[in-house]
Every structure is written in structure tokens, then in C-alpha cells.
Amino acid sequence: MSKNITPYKDSTLSKKEQVATMFDTISGNYDNLNRVISFGIDVKWRKKVLQIVSKTNPKTILDIATGTGDLAILMAQTSAEKIIGLDISAGMLEVGKKKIQQKKDLATTIEMVLADSENMPFEDNHFDAITVAFGVRNFENLGKGLAEILRVLKPNGVFVILETSVPEKTPFKQGYTFYSENILPIIGKLFSKDNVAYSYLSESAAAFPYGEALNNILKKIGFIDVVAMPQTFGVATIYSASKK
Question: Which end of the chain is flanked by fewer CB atoms within 10 Å, N or C?
């Protein structure tokens, strides 16, 4: 389905163990670095995800690969009574928990859970809405992870992915390639304790299926009403899908 890119190429750990280690290491700088790398545009993309989810009036929301909880916190603007942010990185979740504690009104709504997205501790047909922002490319087994999401999503529920993609039109394609291969790793090394983290994020983004390719994977897994919506010249794409 997608080329298996790992953070630490010489490591004997599994991809998910490597990803957890990497995000634990960069968790302290992750939010600020994200704003720098995306020029703040990622905030706009997340707000579009919020708009899509809000239209369905969900009562329960699961945010997978929640990281420091940016999207989970944003989802509190919906009508949801319960929001769960799930991640395999304890370090990222700790940062997220501190952010939630600073917003006292969110403490009873949002719960941060340490768990594997490919083997989630939830019943079938449990959530009205599920979101993943910049996380599906970190799945060790993309098909298994998506199938698990389909399992816990309620029929007629909404599943929204926000993920990097590659612009297809000139000069945006060339500009994106130069930035991701040359500038992004340098910024990562300057601000991060992990020298390989942002090289991995760049490499994994370039190798991950996007657009119609990811649409077809989602359909093959069993999702319906699959739509891809490119953002900002195609450097990111929002995918919306549902379940029979």
C-alpha cells in the first residue's frame, strides 16, 4: 500500500516503536516547530477539518495520532460530549494533557489515551466521528490501521484525514520538493534534539500515497463517500469518508 519508511534505518525496533521514540524525543518542541515548518497554515487546515466534523453534530469523537492534542482541543468546538485523543507517544500526550489542564472547561470533555491505533481498546461502532491529522503515514501497517478505524466508526459516521501530499503542478511541485528535501531537515536539526526526525517526516510524506491513490485504499478497506480535497496548492489534502 505504501513504502515502509522508518525514522531510524539501522534500528531493530518496529516502525511503531521507532515512531513512538521519535515523537517522545521531539515532543517538547513539536508545536512551535510545526508552526514554523508550515508557516502557520496547518492551523487553517485543522479548522477545515473542524468544519467538516461539526456538520455531522457528533456526540463522540476519536482523534487518532493526536500528538499534543491540537486537533482534539479544536474538536471541543463541536457538539461532542466526549473526545478521546489517542497516541502511541507518551511524551506527546503529556504535552497535550498540560494544554488541556490549562483550559479547565475541557478537562471533563477530552481524555488522552496511550494506545496503538492498529489495535484500539474500543468496541465496534463506537464513535460518531474519527479524525487523523498527519498520522496515517506513521502507521506501521496502513491497511490494518484503516480497518481498525472502520471497525470503531459508527455507521454513517464521518472519518476525516488531514495529511501531507505532493503538489502536481509546476512550479509548486518543484518548490515543494526543494523545501522538503533541503530546508525542512535543516530546520528540524536546528530546533530538534533528534537529528533524523524531520528527515523522516519529509521522506515519509514524499513516499506516502495521496489523492486518488489513498482514495482507492480507503474504498478497498470498506469506506464509502470518499472525497479528497487538496489544500494550499496540494501540499496537504483533507480526505472525508463514511461507513455503511
Answer: C
Cell 491505533 sits on residue = 117
> Per residue in 169-194, pLDDT tens?
999 999 988 988 888 878 777 766 67
Closest CA to 45 of 111, 106, 138, 134: 134
Which residues does 131 contact at the CB level (< 8 Å), separation at least 6? Answer: 49, 53, 61, 62, 63, 64, 71, 75, 159, 160, 161, 162
Q: pTM here?
A: 0.94
Cell of 126: 463506537
Give dist(CA 39, CA 179) in Å, integer. Answer: 12
How many CA atoms are closer than 13 Å to the CA of 7, on its beta-carbon side? 24
Q: Which residue has the cell 496537504?
A: 236
In this predicted structure, what is the pLDDT of residue 3?
A: 63
CA distance 135 to 179: 21
